[in-house]
Amino acid sequence: MEKLNSIFRMEYGKDKLLERDTSPEGNTPLISSRGTNNGIVGFVDKEPSYKNVINVPRTGTICYAFFQENSCCINSDSIVLIPKKEFTKEEMIFITLLIRKQIFKYNYGRKVTPDRLGNTEIPTKFPKYIYEKRKIDFSKMKFKITSNKIELYNRKWKEFEYSKIFNIERGYYNKRPEEIGKLNFVSASMFNNGVTDRIDFSVVEKIYSGNCVIIVNNGHAGEAFYQKQDFTCSHDVNIIRLKDKEINIFISFFLIPLFKKEKYRFNYGRKWRFDRMLKNIIKLPVNENGKPDWDFMEDYIKSLPYSKVLIN
Predict the structure, then answer these.
(1) Measured between alpha carbons, how far is 195 from 182 in angstroms, rounded to an integer?
(2) Domains, the chain, ranges and CATH?
(3) Quick one: which of 77, 91, 244, 295 could link to 87 by a disulfide (CB 3.0–4.6 Å)?
């Protein structure tokens, strides 16, 4: 084990640019404290400050690190880890993931700093599997995928109230137990499919059956994830199923981006609680009877490139 400050030099990002400083003509990625798109908020017309480094956000999505392989600018709301020795791309990505595992140590009251982060110990004897190039064997996947492109916008769409087409269930007021086990504990997170712990069945009061979508209603309100397996959860999520059909992973992946489009309506002061969700409106493609065309939604997702991986 080695401390991060023994293998990286740490500094605050050199740039102090805003999202409004980006432009379509810019060539240099601007990295900020965002938990998506590898931290990129846009492109700027400026000489890059960094390359082959790790950025660790200290605000926003705190400690959700990204490896920046290409030349970029990094804002001062991130700590930049500059290698003191040469690492391969695979090793840098592996270290990045180890840093993300430290998220639980930090929050808005306890921010990540170079000193705190630098004292984090990680193994530097890297496992062999990180260098392997893994391939998915599609021939073993036994379900039909259409090869024909399906048009999304040449159809009739209609607005529906959530309560009319979804069965919505409140999450349960579980306290986070100490006992580690095999049952997924889903809570208010935007990472790891919403799973924040794995706990023992013996200490769980309520278990929800899998094959559903959960929507975060507090904190990262509007984040949504498909849950394949049985799970338990906190009251910070609501559980979504269909009223007139059993949901599946393909329909779920059609709906999830639509759920996430509602994020801008909610924040820490205005949570997406159960009663509000019942009255929300969603626009969906419909069949000739004017009802949600679940079969079309399923077929559309199946027609997309790489959709076979969803069955894995």
Answers:
(1) 12
(2) 2-131 (3.90.220.20), 147-311 (3.90.220.20)
(3) 91
